[in-house]
Fold these 4 entries.
Entry 1:
Amino acid sequence: MTEQIQSKRKKISEVFAIAAMILLLVYISDAAVGQGKQGFLPLNAAQRGMLLGSSSIILFLLSFGIGITQKTKITTILLIVGGAIIATSVLAASAMAKGGLAAISNSFIIVVILGFIIMGLGIVRVIQKK
């Protein structure tokens, strides 16, 4: 019984991490196409961030929480890569925007920090395995 529960937790953790990565990649693709306006999805930049960006962050965090005791390379790798993508994409977009990094808003700083936290959670998983 316990092994079945552990197996389910591992699979749920992996599914959440995969879903988070898909949402993140759709978000970045739509933002790249839209260039600050509407991309291929019928969402403006604020809606896109709230719907796709927030959802991916929440799913990454849930993935870590559910699979914290599980050994799964998929979750670990996706946490590290996803966190890095979140942080660097926001930093890059802010650097290219009018005013550059000096004009970065507090909400963007929070997203960058969350990206590095997610990446750090993936690194913690690597360290736990040793």
Entry 2:
Amino acid sequence: MYSSNNNKQTSPMIEILAQFRRNFIVSVSTFALLVGCTNAYSNKTQQPETLTDANIAAIVVGANNIDISAGKIALQRSQNSEIKKFAERMVADHTAVLNSAVALVTKLGVTPVNNDLVATLAKQSSDHEAVLLTLSGKAFDKSYIDHEVAYHEAVIGVIENQLIPSAQNKELKDMLISVVPAFNAHLEHSLMVQKQIQ
């Protein structure tokens, strides 16, 4: 209920608009950040600087950890069975990719080297999780799945346009190529769930 005296309650419409604004800002900023990854290492002629295999390894580890963490939050906070199924898939699939990537870089003797992109991804993830932890019900579900759609769209672009072309080691490049179909399936699944909860 909305009150004009000292009572701090807000109207449901004001609360919905505030939640929409927070969700929209997080989704747009995540999408913009990840889309911008393909240009994050550009020089003045807009030719992308090649990432090292150690940088790529750090990005892969960081990106998978982000989706695992968000999935775990969704499993704890959502009551929607479709969101929970999707989150379970994200935790399982991204844990498998993470384990595979760690095994590969260990075998190759590559130590992941963080860069500005990894730090920015970590900050963005922390900010998104902080927003998720303030939400519940349909507002939570919508924020989580909208973010997952934007995140997977952007990650697929970064993998295809930046990481695969930059990978020097054939096994690392092959691993990156091999995960694209799974990430495309994640995107399709997230779009389906997004339509269901609109």
Entry 3:
Amino acid sequence: MRTAAVTALILILNVTSSFSQAGQAGQTGQTGQTEKELVIGEQPLYRAAKATGPIVADGVMNEDAWKEAQVVTFDHFFRRDEPLEKQRTEFRMMWDERNIYLFYECEDTSITARETGFDGRPYLDDCAEFFVLPVPDSLYMHFGYEVNVVGARYDYVVLWQFVGNRTVFIPDYNPAYEVGVTMDGTLNDDTDTDRGWTMEYVIPMSALRGFNTRNLAGTRWAFQAVRQDRNAVDDRFRSTSTLFPTYDVALDVHPPYRFGLMEFMDN
């Protein structure tokens, strides 16, 4: 059943989804790139292959379908308080008529997670995040999924700078989706050296309420993929890496006008 908040959001989207945000020049961010809004035709592109067989969210990439996925790395890093560690993350995404499939493969010398509650703060731990806007535009909203390595979830709808430049997170979203994790190392033990972890998402198309999810071949959607990297149990902060550059924006990963695009390929 839809909550009142999500129903109201869909009504807002029906009114605003035809509008895009104009590009603009601004300051230079921490990546050394000129700050700007991205408009249609400018966003970097990820080509999502269509899955040719079933995929199970178990954190193990043993299905033949994954061999067709484009492999990319997270090359944009930041941390707020001190020099960061740039640990490698590989990302893959596929789709079919029923689901979107994500696979994160993360090198990690210290696997760490403390959050265990639902709709808590898994983003302070080793965590994989996915933000998606099911149009190829910079409408100021998106769906968000954040899961840490012990499976604690935080999912929501974001209304970016919705009221008085204040961003609103609606945690009542709570869609059904599957996540599997594997770890090669010991959790929350700073005395040894770990090797890494994987996370695999299966997100049903039905979770993206209010948007068209049929006949997607050739369609483009806006999205961002993010990794949070907490490298010590007692460390209050973490390093962040992203698939697409954020151009600083006060070190915020949520501005939808900085997202790249996925294109649904028909193999």
Entry 4:
Amino acid sequence: MYFKNFPRVILDGSTGATGSSVIAVDILRRVGFNNTGKTGSEFFVEYNVGDTETPESIANHIYGSPEYHWVVLMFNDKFDAFFEWPLSVRKFEKYMTKKYQGITLFFADGVTGSFLPNDTLVKTSGTGLTGWGGLVDEYDPTLNKLTITGVGSGYEFSADDLVKSYNATGGTLLTQNVGEAVVKRIVTDSSQALHHFETSGSTFDGYDDIGGGSQTAKIRLDPLSKYNGITQVSMGSGGVTFGNTLLYGYTYNSSSNYVKTNYDYETEQNEDKRKISLLNPTHLDQVIREFKSLISKR
């Protein structure tokens, strides 16, 4: 039903399989609700998407037909039901397993060189290489955080291990490493590794565009700062050294203060997608009429 009312366009012959012109649906045409139409309780109802609910099932429940799934998506400015819709618990766990593979290492301050994707990572001693470490997946220099994959069965890292990275550009001799660091913390399940530091601030109103409401502000904290629950002081100011920072506490002392893991972050992102607003069913007929009129205009 959604594309049935879209205008058709004639594409020139160069795009046709046989060289002739073709008629196609103008899928680039867009119509949406303005913010004025999304405010006022008479226009919408708040809704929390259930674990296995889809735009089609909600439309069938609220509007009497799954064909009105586009109203559900459009009213919430969602145009991709695959990436902008909350995942079920089962799909979310599969997503996490696929995205956060391998293990995550946190380095001591003083990392040198680079750790690029697909670099080879090895443990070393003073006399040479001591074993295969894996392949670099991603390196975050702000957190001194390295995720690696392909770690051999039974192979383990320990605090104070010296690791080096190698690639074809730098060379494969012991002295031709492109990066070097000392391991201080190991997280064997990368989904449980630090994503960022965060604290909750005061509650404020009108946090969304659809109907207002209230929530507690979430404030990201600078990892290279000292935070006492009230005041955040950056490293280099007020006598704060690296040893006073949130990142130091996490990396060296396994502190969990203000820590949000990758799993925490992804869970919150997915759960936030569950909070939607739905057009009041009493306005459905009017919206459909206006949609047909606007989308078909040339």
